[in-house]
Amino acid sequence: MSRLPERTEALVIGGGVIGNSIACLLAEAGVGTVLLERGALGSGSSGTTAGVVRTYFPGNALISSLAVRSLAAYHAFTERTGTDLGLKRIGLLVLFSDEEQVQDFRHTQAAQQAAGVDVELVTAAEAARLNPLVDERTVLAAAWAPEAYAVDPAAIVRGYATAARQAGAVLRTETPVTGIDPDGRVHTAAGSIRADTIVCAAGPWAGTVAAMADVQLPVATYPVEMLLTDAPGSAPHDALPMTMHPSSLRIRSWGDRILVGMGRPAPEETRQTWLQRVSRHLGTTYPALAGKGLEHGWSGDLDVSPDGMAFIGRDRSRPFFYAAGFSGQGLCQAPAAGEIIRDLVLGKESWIDTAGLSTDRCLSGSAEAG
Fold first, then answer.
1. 156 phi, psi to nearest 5 deg
2. What values do phi and psi take at 185, rounded to 5?
3. DSSP β-bridge partners for residue 33
4. Of 105, 119, 157, 286, whose CA is between 20 and 30 Å from 83?
């Protein structure tokens, strides 16, 4: 393996969809950029999701605004990078099982629409029409957001990585960071490199990487497992929308099967007990799936923040930037996150007020916050 360059203007740590978006946009802005990834590109959280990009995030119009901007970038992605993302519109259906959830939607709908989200309240009968597997007797109403698309996460990573290299960025895989000195020297098994600016986009390892630089980044890891089950004979030929239930159960079509997600076993809960719990919720909401076997699809770790919203910002005392804690929503926000970090690094005014994305909101009063 060739040694690292001795110096770079910007060093991005993390080679998932977030890190590659940042590296691409920095390099295209003329910033000398090196990206370090501990494994293969896209091998972390980027490959752990259900492969859907959407614009509606219930209760958080700020996340939705990032997602709206990101979706626009994805629609232009093929022309911009030459990589086809295979976008297929499937829509997002969020089921409500009690009146409080319906009222919460009504109170936040205007803010969502102001953020550019196309979302409406539909009846239980309409929800069952949009997803024929839904038992409308278990649903009070639902939110319907048509702008949700199935996508290949690996294609997003590949497209950004290719564009980053074409713009002059150096991308190094199998190069975990082992230390960060106060002067910006970053150590790896392949040698050391001094960076004028460091960007932490290391997903589940972001907190560990930040700690090497004596920066507090309150990101935790959350293991998830995606399950697969057979589609019933009554399932429509068209793809089912991504459908989310208040229990955290979510399903969508996955080829000729159905993808099922519901987090992970709770503390002290065995995997078998968790699978039984998932199966019970599945059979209640979707009777045609009752008794269907659940098989392991894939699993991995997500990087999560205390409030479920990403941290995108910079440390107050040094040129250390961060984009982490996306809580399973990184695919939906990567283009916008890349733009925000690029503008912060360049000292340019961002397209959005980034104050609410800083770690300040979770580290109030801490000198480490940025």
1. -65, -50
2. -80, 125
3. 10
4. 119
Residue 50 has pLDDT above 80, yes or no: yes
Task: Measure CA 234 to chain center.
Answer: 32
What pTM, to 2 d.p., does this model score? 0.94
CA distance 177 to 195: 13
What pLDDT is recorded for position 2? 67
CB 160 within 8 A of CB 24: yes
Polymer length in residues for the chain: 370
Asked if residue 47 has pLDDT above 80, the reply is no
pLDDT of 365 > 60? The answer is: no
Name the residue among 349, 331, 308 with its Cα closest to residue 62: 308
Contacts of 255 (CB under 8 A, 6+ apart): none
Calculate the CA 306 to chain-centre distance. Answer: 15
Cβ neighbors of 150 (< 8 A, separation 6 or more) are: 51, 52, 86, 87, 88, 90, 239, 252, 253
Which tokens is 63 given? 């996340």
Tokens 């984009």 locate to 323
Return the C-alpha torsion angle 122, 123, 129, 132, nearest 10.
Answer: 110
Contacts of 90 (CB under 8 A, 6+ apart): 52, 148, 149, 150, 239, 240, 241, 242, 252, 253
